[in-house]
């Protein structure tokens, strides 16, 4: 019993009515409708395979038009024979398509296997290269250690060869003090010398500098002329009033001088 009034007319809210894309006349089947499923990227633009499909559709339509009517037993037998022949032809064509698809899949599988084999060979080559580099580093380190040990043994042999008879030599003090690498200047720890034990041997320990009583005694012994200290008070950079305050203009002048500098 109630109604509502809208702000818009019915004509403004009306949508576009449905209209089909095409209209087929009764009793006719246009050939173009057989290609309605083809779209851009999926059959269009048409290639060799699409042209073969179109030819097959035309042949099938011609075959359907050539089928005898089912008005007599002979025509029915002839129609069944033609349909069996067409079915065998369709199966042969389907087998051919399956063979083509299998060949394409086989080529794709071959490429994938080849790519996987190449990636695996590349990975194996990288691993072998890493192993080779590690072995080379270990080899160089071993050679370096052998050379170091060889130089050490040569130095020991040279040192033993100097006194191969095992004679006792008298100490040459002049030669030891002339050679700064001798035991006099740089004694070795394996000979019983440990420099860390006497690390404070050369430290300066002065009674007059390290103790308060020594400082007092040093002050008493010093002449009185060195104690008076004359310090000149620096002149103020600003203008000071009689009360001891700095004028504001003086502070401003100092700031301006600093900025100028």
Q: Can you lay out the helices and strands and say which pair or pack?
A:
Blueprint: H1 10-13, E1 39-40, E2 43-44, H2 48-66, H3 73-162, H4 173-178, H5 207-210, H6 212-221, H7 248-260
Parallel strand pairs: 1-2
Protein name: Cilia- and flagella-associated protein 91
Domain CFAP91: 4-156
InterPro entries: CFAP91, CFAP91_dom
Protein architecture, described:
This protein has 261 residues and is mainly α. Helices cover 56% and strands 2% of the residues. The protein is built from 7 helices and 2 strands, in the order H-E-E-H-H-H-H-H-H. A two-stranded parallel ribbon has the order 1-2. The longest helix has 90 residues, at 73-162. The radius of gyration is 57 Å and the shape is elongated. It starts with 9 loop residues before the first helix and ends with a helix. The model has no long low-confidence stretch (mean pLDDT 84).
Largest beta-sheet characterization: 2 strands, parallel
Spatial strand arrangement across the major sheet? 1-2
Question: Which residue ranges are poorly predicted, with pLDDT under 50 across at least 5 consecutive positions?
Answer: none
Strand content: under 5%
Class inferred from helices and paired strands: mainly alpha
Oligomer: single chain
Subcellular location: Cytoplasm, Cytoskeleton, Cilium axoneme
Domain CFAP91: 4-156
Protein name: Cilia- and flagella-associated protein 91
Family: Belongs to the CFAP91 family.
């Amino acid at each position: 019993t109630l109604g509502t009034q809208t702000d818009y007319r019915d004509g403004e809210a009306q949508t576009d009515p449905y209209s089909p894309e095409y209209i087929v006349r009764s009793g006719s089947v246009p050939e173009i409708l057989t290609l309605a499923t083809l779209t851009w990227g999926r059959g269009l633009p048409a290639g060799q395979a699409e042209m073969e499909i179109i030819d097959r559709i035309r042949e099938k339509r011609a075959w359907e038009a050539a089928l005898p009517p089912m008005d007599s037993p002979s025509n029915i037998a002839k129609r069944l024979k033609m349909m069996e022949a067409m079915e065998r032809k369709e199966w042969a064509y389907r087998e051919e398509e399956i063979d083509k698809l299998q060949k394409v899949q086989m080529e794709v599988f071959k490429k994938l296997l080849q790519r996987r084999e190449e990636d695996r060979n590349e990975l194996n080559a990288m691993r072998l290269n890493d192993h080779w580099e590690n072995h080379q580093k270990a080899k160089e380190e071993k050679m370096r250690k052998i050379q170091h040990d060889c130089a050490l043994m040569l130095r020991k042999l040279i040192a033993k060869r100097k006194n191969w008879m095992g004679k006792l030599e008298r100490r040459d003090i002049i030669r030891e003090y002339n050679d700064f690498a001798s035991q006099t200047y740089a004694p070795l720890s394996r000979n019983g010398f440990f420099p860390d034990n006497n690390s404070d041997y050369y430290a300066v320990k002065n009674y007059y500098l390290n103790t308060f009583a020594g400082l007092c005694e040093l002050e008493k012994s010093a002449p009185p002329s060195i104690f008076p200290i004359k310090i000149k008070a620096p002149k103020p950079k600003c203008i000071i009033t009689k009360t001891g305050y700095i004028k504001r203009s003086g502070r401003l002048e100092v700031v301006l001088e600093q900025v100028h500098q």
